[in-house]
Amino acid sequence: KLRNNKAYSVGLALSTLWSQLSLLPVPYSKEQIRADDYGLCRCCKALIEFTKPFVDDVIDNKENSMENEKLKDEILKLSLKCPLLTAQFLEQSDDTGDDPLRCFASEIIGFLSAIGHPFLKMIFNHGRKKKTWDYLEFEEEEDKQLSDSMASLAYLVFVQGISIDQLPMVLRTEESVFSKGLDLLENGLLRIEDNSLLHQYLEIKSFLTVPQGLVKVMTLCPTETLRKKGLAMLQLYINKLDPQGKYTLFRCLLNTSNHSGVEAFIIQNIKNQIDMSLKRTYNKWFTGPQLISLLDLVLFLPEGAETDLLQNSDRIMASLNLLRYLVIKDNENDNQTGLWTELEKIENNFLKPLHTGLNMSKAHYEAEIKNSQEVQKSKDLCSLTVGREEIPNMPPEMQLKVLHSALFTFDLIESVLARVEELIEIKTKSTSEENKG
Q: Which partner for 61 in 68, 105, 186, 292 could form a disulfide, CB atoms 3.0-4.6 Å apart?
């Protein structure tokens, strides 16, 4: 019914209603919200019903007249600060349809989108508006009110999930394909008995590309759940292969994965197969000459003493743990694994270069720590080289944490190495005494 100064009249009415609404206590518990003793929830519902005709008026007016723009501006001033900034919402698991404050927030956000101001645009454009007041104190007060409203709006959308379905999203179709592929592989593998998939199948290209593809999912997929599923599927695939198939696959992945974590996973599987062979059924693929050929791929450093120990720490720790297991479980006189006849080669190719590499790496990182501490005194930013890659402009405090973490890794490797060498010495000394006796 309003014809002249409609926007001014609506703005005045909304401002008066909001000022009265802000005086009412905000209910915090589920019981208080449902009791609504002070009528805040009922007032919010009434305010929505009061505002809706004006929103419809803006939507229906296609002329975009000056009066219509003014009316739109007044509706935009609907504050999301009070009472929503301090309100407590019912848990998502509850019947959220009975939460009047959530419904109130949803309606307001819907109004904003309906009049051509989607919430995402409002959040991103906040702070870019032109000056509208001649008096600084009015400008600052409006900025504060708007900032609080935008903070409340962001919380409602991103935390409470109200109207989040309106957000533009990019569908990553490849993740859906990966997920379905992994599910299909799992379904097929579960139909096969363990240790029954013949090694000859690995001569078929498609059979060998499956574990190689799983390695790519494990190491390159950005989604953690898919990476974990890829790891579980690789383990399931390994379980289905016969002993020679496992042996062949381990050799292949050790030669092609180029990833310390994957290699550590394979080495752990090798250890498990050796353990089963020693405890249960003799298996020629994980004892004697065949095992020694496999250990040649495990108990060595790719670049000798100059190997990047930090980058290869997972593989090195797994290799040391495997060697420690072999020393403990296999007596020199029995020599079921062939370890003791190859001990000198293992020492030359693995243990001695590892000692040298640890000394070099620790000296390098200790020097870097000293340099970082000196830089910290000067309060400058500095660069750091880790894994032969420079990380620029790192604050000295952060650099020190990285360096100390590296030293801790080296100390851990060194402690396991010392234990392995101690066990070798004890075992060889004991065998020597037995032979003399």
A: 68
Report the CATH number at residue 418.
Answer: 1.10.287
Are 20 and 127 part of one and the same domain?
Answer: yes
68 and 55 in contact (C-beta within 8 Å)?
A: no
Residues 188 and 205 in one domain: yes
SS3 (DSSP) at 177: helix
Which has the closest alpha carbon to 11: 59, 62, 65, 50? 50
Residue 249 located in a structural domain: yes
* H or E stretch covering 384: strand 382-386
Instruction: Give the tens place of pLDDT for each residue, 331-365.
Output: 888 899 999 999 999 999 999 999 999 999 999 99
Which of 100, 131, 166 delimits the end of a domain?
Answer: 166
**Helix axes 205-220 and 243-256, enclosed angle (nearest 10):** 50
- CA 204 vs CA 198, 200, 210, 252: distances in Å: 11, 8, 11, 14
Look at the chain and report how many structural domains it folds into. Answer: 3
**What confidence tens digit (pLDDT) does each residue in 210-238 have?**
999 999 999 999 889 999 999 999 999 99
